[in-house]
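Async update (no meeting this week)

Hi team, since we skipped the sync, here's where things stand on the single-chain job. The sequence we agreed to prioritize is pasted below, unchanged from the tracker. I ran it this morning and attached the output directly underneath so nobody has to dig for it. Comments welcome in thread, and please keep replies under the output.
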Amino acid sequence: MSTSHPVALILGAGSNTGRHVAAAFLAQGYRVATVSRSSKPEEAEANELRIQSDFSDPGNIDQIFTKVEAELGIPEVVVYNAYTMNPQNAQDPLALPVADLVQSLNINTVSAYAAAQKAVLGFQKLPETASRMFIYTGNICNVAPMPFILDLGVGKSASAHFIQCAAEGYKDKGFKFYYADERTADGAPVYHDIDGAAHAKHFLELAKGSRQENFPTLEPAFTIRSGGATSRFPVGDTSVGGGMTAIPFYNGVIESVPGFSPAFKFNVSNGIDYVTVDKDQRHGRFNVKAVLTDEEGRNVVLNIEAITELHPDVVGIIDGAPDAKSAPFGYCVEQLRFWSGHEDYKPLEAMYFASSQRFTVAPDGTAGAELRVSRIVSGTGSTPIASSVSSAVTSSNAPSVAPRVAPRVVSRSGNGLLARLQHRMKGVFKVQG
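Output:
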């Protein structure tokens, strides 16, 4: 990041994400240029430049960068947040007129590409201490086709591809490229319930990184809801820790989130959770082995190793206290592995997973657990998809990681990760940033 006043350019500064991102960077000492069709230059704040422009004409991008560089300086952070879509009959998605598709592509992809191209020309003039980051606000459409918004999906998919290519191509120069996609904690899209503050927080974190690092990242993968635990079998002190207890469980559902491959849905056939307690009584450790079965009768084995804080909320459930109630997330983390001889599920054997968990108590008093599981993705030096969480958001659910299990802002680039800030689209509407 520059030592004096770095410059951020927000293309598509709407009332939610765009304005939150602009405010966040202004608060960090950036000079900020915001661009939208409805922008009012006369309402600009200190250190802010407001520009009115239309992204349906990619030729306008050159003029925007020229004006920003002349009045504020070379942008070291460029955010492309503009988009449009033309909802169609999902049973007839190709009825969209070609002219509408062309205009949509101009806004969703071609102008974004032009902006990335201009951003690179500027990055080449900036010192290595500058952030030199381009981030594209995406959604789940690049991995989960939605026929009723075909044009938006075409644009997001194309843009995700050029972002990945740029992240890989410019990684040695330290230029960062991200595709942002906000998701709920269980990996589902947030549709129109977009958390602008979560985006802003996540974008600032990405901007502070000197390069797209090699650290592994998380890809939302599946959820687990298990139950049926009524019996507890004390084993006694063992070589692996004090006081082992075996807790069988007999039901539950394990289901992949939209966009994860391979897709699956399993039921728990049977499983046992082996619980030990550390000598200092502060943590408990779990080793779960379960047999899972799909609708076709194919079996896989799941192993979970976990550690939990022995908070009173947790201890009551483990001990089977009659007044125990479901505990919140925040006490327990796990690592997970699969084994299967079936070709459809073989890819799972080559993956490691991590999750957060909460212990639950059903109305009938039986104990269980709920897990939000992500695949661990290795870092490559170019991480186009990063993640983060929003109040109901984690890229991960972002502003506050808590009860409204946050959506998550994820960012990915090249071979590594693309910043996924997934936007939930519950309504059918046409919007242009």
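Quick observations from my side:
Helices lie at 17-27, 60-71, 98-123, 150-169, 196-208, 312-319, 346-349.
The chain has two domains: 7-208, 217-377.
Reply here if anything looks off.
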